[in-house]
Structure formats: structure tokens, C-alpha cells
Amino acid sequence: MSITISAQDVKSLRERTGAGIMDAKAALQETGGDIDKAIEVLRVKGQASAAKRGERVATEGVVASYIHAGGKIGALVEVDCETDFVARTEAFQAFAREVAVHVAASFPLYVSRDDVDEQAKEAELRVLREQAASEGKPENVQEKIVEGRLNKWLEDVVLLDQKHVNEDKHEAKTIGELRTELAANTGENVVIRRFARFQVGGE
């Protein structure tokens, strides 16, 4: 049975998720007008196709900032999406702020694994191989040890691989996982384009 969905409910759901009008209306119909359940429906449906949006051009977005108490550390982050409508939603802007908070606290060096400097990676690999060799393990075991430790190093320096500094609030999800959720909810490609971290007395 079809129920009557008010324009206000559709507007409210779109503001919270950035979803399209028809998607928002369909989700409300499916959940009997329950906005919280509709958000979950949009998230589940959207997550399945989030990966397919990766190549879509993200030319809108926001620059978010965070200055730590005392004014000694700060961060700027550019997060992009496909439309100005999504860029202005509360969910999108909150995500950008949360990324800025994380950058200030966690000091990542690169946005994604694709951005990692090859020379830095090779230098790290040399050190890890020397460490594994000095432990006297068989060669096939050494390679597995090196691979595991390289992944750990990447998690330490790559923004998308890091768990958000506020693990309790974000259920120990990585920045990459949070970005995927936002892309699923909004139906748009979401890209953390770049960031800068500043510290008084730093380089």
C-alpha cells in the first residue's frame, strides 16, 4: 500500500543524506515514512554501487579547517563531490570537518596508497627486509613478515587507511570506510583531494 510522503520529509531526508528526490521518496515509501530507517535503506543500497562512482568527476566540495585548542596545531582539508547541493549538506560538511580533526591529530603523509612516494616505500622495504633477515626466519616467512609490516607502515602514513582518531564516535572505522559510507548515502563520488597540516615550530 502506498503511503503519503510529505515534501517536508523528503526535504529533510535529502538534507541529511544528499540523496536524490526520487531515491529519498522511494526510501520513505519503503520504510513507511520512518526517516531513520530510510537513511539506513539509502546507505545499504548506495554502498553497493559506491565503488562504481569512483571515476565520476568530483568538481564541487568544501575546504574544511580545524585549529586545535591553544592554536598550536591546525589542518586544512579539501573534500570534493559532484554537486554543490551535496557539498552544502550537513553530512558532507561534518565529514570534511572530521577529516580535518583527524589530520591535525594523526599527521598522515599521503591521502591514498597511490600517492605514496615510491622512494620512501622502497626505503621502508629495505629496512623491513633487513629486519626480517636478522630474525633468522626462512625466506618465505620473511616475505610474509615484510608484507605485514609494510601494510602496517602504510596504515600509519596513508590517510584513507587510518582509523579515525575518535574511534568510539566512528566505531573504529577508517577514513576510507567513512568516505565510502558518505558516497553511499549521497550517491556521489566523494574524494579527499588534499590536506595540509600546520604546527607551530614545525617545518
Describe this structure as you would to a colleague.
The protein has helices at 7-17, 21-30, 35-50, 84-87, 90-106, 118-134, 139-157, 175-186; strands at residues 60-67, 73-81, 191-199. Helix 3 crosses helix 8 (175-186) and helix 6 (118-134) crosses helix 7 (139-157). The chain is built from eight helices and three strands. The longest helix is centred in the C-terminal third of the chain and has 19 residues, at 139-157. The protein is of the alpha+beta class and 203 residues long. Among the domains are: 7-52, Ubiquitin-associated (UBA) domain (Helicase, Ruva Protein, domain 3, Orthogonal Bundle), CATH 1.10.8; 117-156, GTP Cyclohydrolase I, Chain A, domain 1 (Orthogonal Bundle). It has a three-stranded antiparallel β-sheet.
Name the features.
single chain; 203 residues; alpha+beta; Helicase, Ruva Protein, domain 3; GTP Cyclohydrolase I, Chain A, domain 1; three-stranded antiparallel β-sheet; 3 strands
Oligomeric category = single chain
Helix content: 40-55%
Specify Rg, calculated over alpha carbons.
Answer: 21 Å
CATH class of the domain at 7-52: Mainly Alpha
CATH topology of the domain at 7-52: Helicase, Ruva Protein, domain 3
Named at the architecture level, the CATH assignment of the domain at 7-52 is: Orthogonal Bundle
Q: Which strand order spans the largest sheet, edge to edge or round the barrel?
A: 1-2-3
Shape, per Cα inertia axes:
elongated
Could you spell the SSE succession in H and E letters?
Answer: HHHEEHHHHHE
- Biggest sheet character: 3 strands, antiparallel
Report mean pLDDT, rounded to a whole number: 86
Task: Name the poorly predicted regions.
Answer: none
